[in-house]
Amino acid sequence: MVSAGGLYLRESGLEFEEVFISLHVGKWREEVAKYTPAGRVPVLIDDDIRVWDSMAIMTHLLDRHPDAVGWPADPTERALAQSISAEMHSGFQAIRGGLPQNIRMRRSATVSDVCRTQIERVQRIWSDCRERYGNRGPWLFGDFGIADVMFVPVALRFVSYGIPVEGRAAEFLRATLALPSVQEWVRVAQDEGLALDFVDELRKGDMILG
Ligand SMILES: N[C@@H](CCC(=O)N[C@@H](CS)C(=O)NCC(=O)O)C(=O)O
Questions:
Q1: Is the pTM higher than 0.70?
Q2: What is the pLDDT of residue 196?
């Protein structure tokens, strides 16, 4: 379980088998190309249907399994959940570039002004949701939903680079780190033992593994 798609399947109680491909290692592009024309993971193979891109995968699974992890029922909340999920999915390029995902790693990072603004925006989203809906449960809209899945990866980036998360935004981070599926995701990343030099080059500094 090493992707947002896997987290979604696990939290939805759907059975699945995972094919693990070490990206950027050996003939990984050929391996990925066997499963998806997009050349990127995750990709879902559901009988004779192939779906790639984490958002498309969740949309497909929710269509087929209405009891799977979903969106808030209330139209206002649903619109907000879908907006912030789309915002996460399509944006935050400075965070993606400046804080590359490296779940097993812990080290400090200096960030650009643009990256800092984007980090603040992510945390404002979390704290706004927690202020509005925090009385209902530990997640952004109370119960675990697709919006939470979308923000788990960036929460893990903040942990890797020691980005402070405070106030009500920290409630989302705490819920994320307490979720057994996320703990398993981190454990798998730690056990992988794979070092990607180009990722290390992107962020100089003291690297603490574990
Ligand atoms: N929007 C896509 C992003 C997919 C993506 O960027 N996947 C990365 C791994 S998380 C990848 O396949 N990278 C391969 C590459 O660097 O070409 C999604 O959420 O599914």
A1: yes
A2: 67
